[in-house]
Amino acid sequence: MTTSSTQGFRTKKRFGQNFLKDPAVPAAIIEAAELTKTDRVLEIGPGQGALTRGLLEEAGEVVAVEIDTRLTSTLEALQAEQPHLRVVWGDFLQTSFEALGLPEAQTKVIANIPYYITSPILLKLLHGDAIERAPIESIPEWPERIILMVQEEVAKRLLAKPGTKDYGSLSVICQYAAEITPVIRVPRTAFIPRPQVDSMVVMLKPRKKAPIDVANPKRFFQVVHGAFGQRRKTLSNALKGAGFEKEALEAAFTTTGIDPTRRGETLSLEEFAALARAL
Fold first, then answer.
1. Which of 11, 13, 53, 92 has the fewest CB atoms in 10 Å of its CB?
2. What CA–CA distance (Å, rounded) separates 79 from 275?
3. How far is CA 36 from each of CA 56, 58, 100, 142, 255, rounded to the nearest angstrom?
4. Strand, coil or helix: what is 17?
5. What is the dihedral of CA 268, 199, 10, 146, to 10 degrees?
């Protein structure tokens, strides 16, 4: 496996480009992906192909989506060498698995993405809009697994436990939708150009069944967003501010035994679900 060289190539700030130069990182990603020759891989943001080459050695097919057409000669040369690589030019956020010709349920997603679009890409891959309206079990297809390079601070939020400063609505949404594990911490020195922050690779395995009893997903997420919408306020005041009636809240707190003076960041997924059911 080779790593990226930026010789003769000027990265663009608007694309959030930072290319890997440490071969240990692609190796760890590929190991976590547990690839076989029957696997299809969607790589978002292949850049100069540092990770792509390793994926091609292990997977049956790699579809790489790249927005920066200045990389055309590099990626098309790699595509000419590797018939099981298909490069698609465009913005992943503006496309779909269907348009890419990939069966979502049989695809592993691997990405070193620009940090400024981490949340939109995460929520797109985890069907963020759909799971806030309907049960997880009703989602017809999920990627088999998702492996992302994210800013270390974002990784901490994804992995955060209740009662910690990093725990928030993104923690709840992603932990509700997927089992999340850390893969490898990546220092800023592993990139060219060097970013201002350290990174972490995380793996998400989308759930086929909700980890908690959520009778009404819409109400569950109304409670979650309401509780985190005003973090400094008590749970009772935050939810009142989100539009819940005082009497309904008092009854729900009594039913669940949840102290209304607690703050949203102290509630577990199970407690959020219990409160939503009581409301």
1. 13
2. 52
3. 10, 6, 21, 19, 50
4. coil
5. -60
Handedness of CA 127, 38, 92, 180 (dihedral sign): positive
What does pLDDT average to over the chain?
90
pLDDT single digits (tens) 72-115: 999 999 999 999 999 999 999 999 899 999 888 889 999 887 78
Q: pTM surpassing 0.85?
A: yes
Output the CA–CA distances (angstroms, integers) from residue 162 to 31, 89, 126, 131, 167, in the order listed.
30, 40, 21, 21, 6
pLDDT tens-digit readout, 134-170: 999 999 889 999 999 999 999 999 999 999 999 999 9
Q: How many CB atoms lie within 10 A of CB 27?
A: 14
CB burial of residue 177 (10 Å; 0-12, 13-18, 19+):
buried
Q: How far apart are CA 211 and CA 156, in angstroms?
A: 20
Closest residue by Cα to residue 22 from 185, 197, 195, 190: 190
Buried b / exposed e along 46-74 (16+ C-beta atoms within 10 A): bbbbbbbbbbbebbebbbbbbbbeebeeb
What domains sit in the chain, N to C, each tagged with a CATH number?
A: 13-206 (3.40.50.150), 217-278 (1.10.8.100)
Q: How confident is the model at residue 17 (pLDDT cuts 50, 70, 90)?
A: low
Opening angle at CA 93, ends 22 and 126, nearest 5 = 85
- pLDDT at residue 19, as a whole number: 67
Which tokens go with 247? Answer: 């009497």
DSSP structure string for 24-71:
HHHHHHHHHHT--TT-EEEEE--TTSTTHHHHHHH-SEEEEEE--GGG
Tokens of 92: 């992943």
What are residue 112's DSSP bridge partners? 149
